[in-house]
Amino acid sequence: MVSAPVPSVGPSHKATSPPSLSPPFPAPESPPTPSGCPAAVGASVCPAAAAASNGVRLSVSRGPSNHPDTMYTTLPTSGSPFGPAAARPGLHVWRVEKLRPVEVPERTWGVFFSGDAYLVLHNGPEERAHLHLWMGRDSSQDEQGACALLSTQLNALLGERPVTHREVQGNESDLFMQYFPHGVTYQDGGVASAFKPPRPSTSPGHRLYQVKGRRNIRASERDLAWSSFNTGDCFILDLGETLLVWCGSGCNALERSRAQELAAAIRDSERRGRARLEIVADGEEPPEMLQVLGPKPTLPEGSPEEDAVADQSNARAAVLYKVSDATGHMDLTQVAASSPFSQSLLCSDDCFVLDNGAGGKVYVWKGRKANEQERQAALRVAEEVITRMGHSPRTQVEILPQGHETPLFKQFFTSWK
């Protein structure tokens, strides 16, 4: 068993240049895909995950208990700072002030102070909800820690339904940007600071995915521009009410099929089946596509060699870890060294980290029977993985409660039931 103690994740810990990934994270051979553990069931021990574990462990020590942002701070069981209005449909925005949530008036939605932290909640139809933790680049560790703990209280109030996202200033997710159709504005300083001239964000409210590969086909989010395109791949342009699947003249049949499947999954799971799905051939771009992307330039060609390289990198793109505090520390034990994974590895009694930092995102899957401390630690553990693995600090974090998995998370598994 290789153990790698990690510095405390309390307030005094600040990320520096990441240490060498070996020995803490050697790259062992991928274990065989296990069987025999029912997917996401409430067994006290998950045989498949236990059998797959190859001994690679990340140990996250407890933070000091006298700080508000330690992952083990006890949350009050009554007197939630969020009122019943938080459960109403629609958008809600709170700013963290003196470690408490203060509702932001609707007239100032989209204005964010760089020295503050915010909670943005969207309660959608059919009990779908997304909770975003927006951390200003100049916000204090106390504010960031309080924001994380307040998110656990809000999650509890909403029955652990929301998918939780960590948003980084200047690299917000497109889902977050869609809540603010006129864009977001950054203000210098914090809530008590003088008003400074705004800096508008240019992030759009649409999304673009590239679908690439032959055997290990993967969809990755790309910049919303023609410069992201080539004629050898398929792309999904998500315009909200319309999903355009653009097929390059040189794309392969598997990419075309996978792109249509993913677009249909986005339509059915995120748009209640009401979005229009349209297949677009190279050279037949509709006006709405050109309106978003501008005039189409001459695009570079793709190649089979690039697909082969993508197959190899896609297979190594993600690592799956099991989270446990059974030893008194928050341990991450590697369950599978490369994707695709078997869904049977996910068991309801535990939380799991799917590290796709190479693709710009780290996921935490929360089993419905995982204990409170593991649930509270989800964001901290994801941030520690980002630091220890040397991923960009702009890496996005998505925390998924069991039963509310997104299509982009599911694509890392061989099949999903």
UniProtKB/TrEMBL annotation:
A GO biological-process term: actin filament severing
Annotated stretches, region: Disordered: 1-38
Record keyword Cell membrane present: no
GO cellular component: actin cytoskeleton; centriole; chromosome; Flemming body; lamellipodium; melanosome; mitotic spindle; nucleolus
Pfam families: Gelsolin
Record text on subunit structure and interactions: Interacts with NUP62. Interacts with NUTF2 and RAN; involved in CAPG nuclear import.
Annotated PANTHER family: MACROPHAGE-CAPPING PROTEIN, VILLIN
Entry's family note: Belongs to the villin/gelsolin family.
Entry protein name: Macrophage-capping protein
